[in-house]
Design goal:
Two copies of one chain form a homodimer.
Chain A: H1 8-23, H2 30-36, H3 41-47, H4 51-74, H5 80-94, H6 99-108, H7 110-114, H8 117-133, H9 140-155, H10 167-183
Helix pairs in contact in A: 1-4, 1-6, 4-5, 4-8, 5-9, 5-10, 8-9, 9-10
Chain A binds a DNA duplex (18 and 18 nucleotides) through residues 4-5, 8, 29-31, 39-43, 45-47, 49-51.
DNA sequence: GTCTATATACTGATAGAC
DNA sequence: GTCTATCAGTATATAGAC
């Protein structure tokens, strides 16, 4: 919408996301964000009415995409093909654009996010996504496999320690391991 | 060692661990801990010389156990049997006594722990443990499987949503899924 | 749209009495 | 071993000038 001088709002989001991820939401002060951008705290309050509204702002987009994904999955048959397609689409979203940064932020700030509305919503969507991944098989083992499938996509960023590996290769490996886990669901 | 009136030190540890896990390390103030125990902040400072020393105190025990586990693994042959035994021993430790609470605390406070010595040490041990789990196979997929194996043990606490399931059953399921992952390493 | 100035409250931590 | 009193620093947030 209104951008004014030059996307100050987006610059705030970018810096906040980076600092929240690096050192944690609580440990990052608005003063720190403002200093990094060479503006004052009060300037931040012009764009966002509170600290946690900054979080909400960059979470909303991701929330919307996950809702679309869940809705899509719900109207597919509960087959292995659907589960594979679902995790594939999820990985595509995870590795595309700015979303990986948002996910890293979530992984790193789980506890704080429990007391933030945006965090509760994300947790809810993750649970539902896991639910779709093991639809038709509500055994405990299936639930665990579904959760680990999502972890596989997330953790490929840090669990795989190889200096010269591309994002595409990381995604490929994550999906390979995810597929193994999914194959054991509902059989 | 010296216990004085009645294990005040242990009571502080217990309450701190609970609050740190529930609402996060940064968000939990010493005032809050003191109030819960009906003592003053200054009383806390008698037992621990800083806030992060409280963390250190209940992490040290766990650190020692992980070192033993890593040392044991290092002198075994790099076979599937060793990997299975290693994750089995790890799960036993995870599900025994007060240690699960400490692990939950770690999962929930990753970011903050990056700036705490105790946290860095724990991260280091987890990496080494994952390293032992995929010794002899340094492919990226193997690294990911090793990390997921540890996740399987950790996440069985919350990923499996079943009201009437015992800890033993959770452990059994975790190890079942872990074994599947381990079987694909080094083959 | 960004500023200065300020309000109010809480933080971790210390000194020293009892 | 626990207290009172207090420190200096920082937090989020607001009011109002420019």
């Amino acid at each position: 919408m209104s951008e004014g001088t030059g996307g100050t709002r987006q610059r705030i989001q970018a810096v906040a996301l980076e600092l929240f991820t690096e050192q944690g939401y609580e440990k990052t002060s608005l003063r720190e964000i403002a200093e990094r951008l060479n503006v004052t705290k009060a300037a931040l309050y012009y764009h966002f009415k509170s600290k946690d509204e900054i979080v909400t702002s960059f979470v909303d987009d991701r929330l919307r995409r996950m809702d679309e994904l869940i809705a899509w999955a719900a109207e597919q048959p509960a087959t292995l093909e659907t589960r594979r397609a679902l995790i594939g689409r999820y990985a595509d979203a995870m590795f595309a654009g700015e979303l990986p940064k948002v996910m890293r932020f979530f992984e790193q700030n789980q506890t704080v996010l429990k007391s933030l509305v945006a965090g509760q919503q994300m947790r809810d969507r993750m649970m539902r996504l896991a639910g779709e991944l093991c639809r038709g098989d509500d055994s405990p083992a299936a639930q665990l496999r579904a959760a680990l499938t999502l972890f596989a996509v997330h953790s490929s960023w840090f669990a795989v320690r190889a200096p010269d590996i591309s994002d595409d290769e990381r995604k490929k490996i994550a999906l390979e391991v995810a597929d193994e886990l999914l194959a054991k669901i509902g059989s």
